[in-house]
Every structure is written in structure tokens, then in C-alpha cells.
């Protein structure tokens, strides 16, 4: 994979600044609005890359080994918070 260089402009939004990410990078890394990003600052260098994605509750439950004690009806309980 080669290195792509481009220029981008900062936009102001309230007390923050926004940097636009190219669509090709978003698609390549399966990102979207709300994706978590890792930001590293080293002197004048700013490195931005996809952050660790938070696992979804359904994925965690699917990875639970069989035979563990679980409450009857647990899988049918409705989500009440930020579960996905």
C-alpha cells in the first residue's frame, strides 16, 4: 500500500476544528459517522487512524461459552441503555 499525500483545510465548529477525511479512506477502513478514531500527537505531527471498535452486546453474548450459568429469559430482555 502506497502513501497518499493530500492537502485539507480545517473548518471551525463551535470550539473545535474539523478535518475532512477522504471518502476512499472511510470506505477502505469500514468507517462512518460516529466511528471511533485514535489521535496521536507527536510534536507537529498529527496521526489519525481507526480506533478500537467497541464490541456489540450481541457479539459478546455470541462468544460466551456454552454451559455457563445464565438467567432464564436473559436473551429476551429488552435493551435499556446504549446496548446495540
Helix/strand layout:
Elements: E1 10-13, E2 16-19, H1 23-28, E3 37-42, E4 45-50, H2 57-62
Antiparallel strand pairs: 1-2, 3-4
Q: How would you describe this structure to a colleague?
A:
This protein is an alpha+beta fold and 84 residues long. It has a single domain (10-76), classed as Pemi-like Protein 1, Chain: D (Ribbon). The protein contains two helices and four strands. It has helices at 23-28, 57-62; strands at 10-13, 16-19, 37-42, 45-50. It has a two-stranded antiparallel ribbon with strand order 1-2. A hairpin with a 2-residue loop joins β1 and β2 (16-19). The longest helix has 6 residues, at 23-28. It starts with 9 loop residues before the first strand and ends in a 22-residue tail after the last helix. The model has no long low-confidence stretch (mean pLDDT 85).
Strand elements, count: 4
Q: Major β-sheet, in short?
A: 2 strands, antiparallel
CATH third-level topology: Pemi-like Protein 1, Chain: D
Shape: elongated
Question: Gap between N and C termini, in Å?
Answer: 34 Å
The total count of helices amounts to: 2
Order of helices and strands: EEHEEH
Share of β-strand residues: 15-25%
Name of the CATH first level: Mainly Beta
Low-confidence stretches: none
Helix content: 10-25%
CATH architecture: Ribbon
Mean pLDDT across the residues is: 85
The tally of structural domains comes to 1
- Strand order within the widest sheet? 1-2
Q: What characteristics describe this protein?
A:
single chain, 84 residues, alpha+beta, Pemi-like Protein 1, Chain: D, two-stranded antiparallel ribbon, 4 strands, 24% strand
Amino acid at each position: 500500500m502506497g502513501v497518499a499525500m493530500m492537502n485539507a483545510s480545517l473548518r471551525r465548529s463551535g470550539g473545535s476544528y474539523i478535518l475532512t477525511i477522504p471518502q476512499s479512506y472511510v470506505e477502505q477502513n469500514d468507517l462512518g459517522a460516529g466511528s471511533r478514531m485514535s489521535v496521536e500527537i507527536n510534536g507537529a505531527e498529527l496521526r489519525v487512524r481507526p480506533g478500537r471498535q467497541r464490541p456489540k452486546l450481541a457479539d459478546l453474548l455470541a462468544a460466551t461459552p456454552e454451559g455457563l450459568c445464565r438467567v432464564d429469559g436473559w436473551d429476551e430482555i429488552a435493551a435499556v441503555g446504549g446496548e446495540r
